[in-house]
Amino acid sequence: MTEPILEIEDLNISFYTRKGEIPAVMDFSMTVMPGETMGLVGESGCGKSTVSLGIMRYLGKNGRIKSGSIKFKGRDMATMSDEELRELRGSAISMVYQEPMASLNPAMKIGTQLTEVLTIHEGISEKEAYDRAAEMVASVRLPDPDRIMGAFPHQLSGGQQQRVVISMALLSRPALLLLDEPTTALDVTVEAGIVDLIKDLAREMGTSMIFVSHNLGLILETCDRITVMYSGEAVEEGDIDTVFNKMRHPYTKGLLRSIPVPGADKYSKPLVAIPGQLPLPHERPTGCNFGPRCDHFADGVCNQHDVKMHPVGSETDRHRSRCERIGEINWDAAIDLGDVGEPIVPGDVVLTVDNLKKHYSVSSGMFGGGDTRTVKANENLSFDAREAETVAIVGESGCGKSTFAKVLMGLETATEGQVTLGNLDLSHIPVEERGPSTVSQVQMVFQNPFDTLNPSMTIGDQICRVLEMFEVGESDADRWGKMLELLDLVKLPREFATRMPRQLSGGQKQRIGIARAFAGRPKLVVADEPVSALDVSVQAAVTKLLTDIQRESRTTMLFISHDLGVVRYLADRVVVMYLGEIMEQGPTEQIFAPPYHPYTEALLSAVPVADTHVQKRHVVLEGELPSPLNRPQGCPFQTRCNYVIPGVCDKPLPSRTFENDHVVHCHLDTATLETMEPVIKMTDAPTAAE
Amino acid sequence: MELEQLGSLEIIFGILGRFLPVWIALGVCLIGGYFIRAKLGQFGRLWDSRIGLVGLGVTLFWVFTALFADLIAVMGPLEQSFTFGMKKSAPGTVDAENGIVFFLGGDNLARDIFSRIVYGSQVVLIIAPIATLIAYMVGSSLGLPAGFYGGTIDTVMGFMANLVLAFPVILLFYLLVTPEVRDPTMVNLGLFEIPWSIPIALAAVFFLFPIGFLCLMWFTKYEKNRGKLQAYMGVTIVLGIWVYVGLVFDADPLGILSLDPNELNVFAAVVFVSAPGVFRIVRGLTLDIKTRDYVAAAQTRGERPWYIMLWEILPNARGPLIVDFCLRIGYTTILLGTLGFFGLGLQPESPDWGTMINHGRPFVRLADTAHIALFPAVALMSLVLGLNLLADGMREESLKD
User: Fold this and answer.
1) What is residue A265's predicted lDDT score, i.e. its pLDDT?
2) ipTM of this model?
């Protein structure tokens, strides 16, 4: 057997803070063989990033490796001197971080930064180093390497920056590459390109990789093996196929059951959330850390002593799980779905958006003079939404979905067109002029749970303030009572009324955000990526709450998201946007099946799916999103489209209509669109969760 | 006649003994605070920082000195000894007539320097924090809208702030205290006469800000709650006008409140030069905080801009503002010292430290009499140092995890 590249045994890492020692990683073992890609997956605070920093031996002032060994190519890294470690970092072991802009020195040209790696680690001449760097830039598929080498980091887009960081990490041909959430800050179509690149490079160069991510789908697409972490411990380790289909730890099972995969549906196969919350590092239970949230918890077995990793199957399977009851649990048992609601029957049209335009003018002159250029943030938006219906607005950053939300909320007024809610045209009335009854009818759930509540006011006071603004309730006492009812509605204990936001977890804050939005019995709720910042196991619960409340109050919901998985699961209808324009709209099933708009096709292919039975057709978009200041004439998508027809695509966009109000705005003719192949195919094998 | 002299150790222990009430209060505060530090928020974290704790100790020392001045001082601040030899006497000289010890010696008018420093802390610790507070209200009232609205409002106000900041401060002070500028002229307003001068006009503007600031706060918070709104506004306006008329125009109908014209000058001058600094920091924080989702949430429920500025943005900017506040009290203390030193500040006989240093100035050249200016300077330095350390400690702690 070949020697492993990296061997971690019984690693314990702790951070020492004012509150004492906080164990961040406990009893962690992992082996990475040459050419192997190991996925490290887990929710925030599970210690996955600490492990990768521990491998680099870069834990900062207050972190320390307490015990255990990390062997790189058979040598214990603890015995290496600082000098040797420095030699190793960046040449034999490289790391790619989440934020590309933060990994590049903003004051140095890309070329200089790349050349430096080689002149320092390999001591070769400047000229030779430059040539090799340029070669590497070309091999990460960056266009025009010479221009890139002479550019400063801020002149590149996020995706290009991350490619540069990857090329820098690979320059000295490392034996091990650590990728810590390398694509989390990027858009899905850009992410797909990077993931593709990483896979190819690893194959070509034979580099071993450790891929740290919270996204199971991404791990599935990139890795050979996977280690699932929970609360500082590895809970399951094995080959991708084994762990996804024959998992032997309840947490892995719960995790897979709480993310939407094709086939999940809010009526027939709703997501099942893992109950409870992650324990804080200093409040971990005795015995199994997952015990308090586990369906299979057995008193006297799971909470007696620290649980060790147990091998599953034969030695060659390399499959291990940290569960005391592997043999006792029926892993193929059907999951209790809870009460599955009847499909909602949408009512009358509540919201009509007609030819909405929002333009901003930007002047480039020093004193406000000079050229004025127009940024078309929203162009010709037309769609409608019915009572109790969920309409998803899908698109990547810069597609204008947030601007549209602002116009709806009255934070901006439209340049042209109409937004009719009931009988009222909202498009030109700013929120200050709307009056409480209208304002309470259109409410919003915000994206970032840590930002959505005023940190210096109690939860109760904040909700009461909303009620007061909406003129609900007669007196302070009356409103206080109504506020407590709202807490019941979002399934939070009434004691939370007197708490401050910092005492709540992200999921709980988001529930308060939902309570606030529904306080005035709104007709329309705009949910701007309400769960994307939450941990996977909490997402499902918040999503369910949101849909339950919406179903009960028959509120129309506009669900803004870039995550097609959640959209497919939640939405009744989908609107796909690109650069401020609608590319395609229609009922959800029809959006996810051909005929597609070419952009939808790429989007579908780009979204990682955490299901080994899904086969995706590979569609990768080249290039970057054009700046909104230089919008192409005609179809905005033509610069990246795989089907572009020269001379045709710069004409105004026609619309192709299919059954059930399914509209595709594309120059391709109906016949071509209809013969497109589906992107996602399900193979027949049953999923393990069933 | 040779006067009795105490040795250095006797002086030190004598002074430490005089400060006994301060030590007791300080002990109670620091030890008591340790046990309730979890409830003190930002201040509670000071107990985790050595630097911050020293700063808090020094600052509180002067606060308690000001509070217990009557117990600590051996003489009144203006009292003179008529015993021969007490003028410019060395530290530790005992007054032969009544046995009073001049721990830090006597000044050129035979007043006890120790007692004057102790009483001087009262003057400094009343004027500096209040002036800073008013500067804060002026700076916030202007900085919040500048940051929140941006655009022309921001440009105009930022420019004016820069104008004030760029003007030489000392020259400004000299202008403000020139007799032609300072001396009030009586202006007949038909029904009654009010005193009028440029410093009074400035103070009249500045002192309006706290009243407006509070009224705006109550109005935006309780707009839809008539009862509470009337109560809060009523109290604020009645008290505000009473204090305003008393302090600015020296026309308190009840005759309780009055402010010496010199002190009003000092207030006007200090607020005028501090407010632009506050304006800048508040504006910067506003620019940052206005992008938060809770501000958008407040907008989407139809809140007025001023509600958002005063209740959503300002409370969440308090961390850096408290730190800056401590630093700025220090600057103001130095500013008061500077004013006093140039003889521009309070009455010449006032025991404030700047004026004392000014009085000691001619005697610094001789080693025997240098203490007249030296000890107030040490007092000034220790208070400013304490405030700076306090601010440093708080900033450091707030940056940690």
Assistant:
1) 67
2) 0.81
Distance CA B173, CA B152 (A): 30
Q: Which whole-number Å values give the CA distances from B118 to B7, B61, B73, B121, in the listed order?
A: 22, 11, 6, 5
Q: Which of chain A's residues have a Cβ under 8 Å away from the Cβ of B224?
A: 468-469, 471
Cβ–Cβ < 8 Å for A42, A49: no
Q: Which residues of B121-134 are buried (b: 16+ CB within 10 A; e: fewer)?
A: bbbbbebbbebbeb
Residue A542 burial by Cβ neighbours in a 10 Å radius (0-12, 13-18, 19+): buried
Which residues are CB-neighbours of A686 under 8 A, at least 6 positions away? none
Pick from A448, A468, A476: which is nearest to B293 by CB? A448
Residues 414-473 of A with CB under 8 A from B: 431-432, 434-436, 439-440, 442-444, 446-448, 451-457, 466, 468-471
Q: Cβ distance A637 to A667 under 8 Å? A: no
Secondary structure letter of residue B47 according to DSSP: G
Estimate the crossing angle of helix B113-149 against helix B261-289, to 10 degrees.
Answer: 40
User: By the 8 A CB rule, do B147 and B286 touch?
Assistant: yes
Question: Residue B157 — pLDDT band, cuts 50, 70, 90?
Answer: very high
- Per DSSP bridges, beta strands A75-76 and A319-321 are unpaired
CA distance B258 to B205: 17
Confidence of residue A688 (pLDDT cuts 50, 70, 90): very low
Q: At residue A33, what is the residue type?
A: M
Nearest residue to A214 (alpha-carbon basis) of A46, A51, A97: A46
**Can you state the percent helix, strand and coil of chain A, rounding each to 5?**
35, 25, 45
**A280 Cβ contact partners less than 8 Å away, ≥ 6 residues apart:** none
- DSSP per residue, A471-519: T-SSSHHHHHHHHHHHHHHTT--GGGGG--GGGS-HHHHHHHHHHHHTT
- Three-state secondary structure call for residue B243: helix
Strand partners, A345: none
B200-230 confidence digits (pLDDT tens) = 888 888 889 999 999 999 999 888 888 889 9
Mutation site for B-interface testing, chosen from A61, A404, A456 by largest number of B Cβ within 10 Å: A456
Distance from CA of B54 to the nearest CA of A (A): 19
Query: Which of B302, B318, B401 lies nearest to residue A469, judging by beta carbons?
Result: B302
Query: What does the alpha-carbon distance between residue A405 and residue A414 come to, in Å, rounded to a whole number?
Result: 11
Percent of chain A with pLDDT over 70: 95
Distance from CA of A547 to the nearest CA of B (A): 21
Six-digit token pair at A50? Answer: 């600490």
Q: Which chain B residue's Cα is nearest to A435?
A: B302
Q: Quote the pTM value.
A: 0.83
Question: Quick one: DSSP state of residue A512?
Answer: H
Q: CB of A230 within 8 A of CB of A46?
A: yes
Q: Cα A270 vs. chain centroid, distance in angstroms?
A: 20
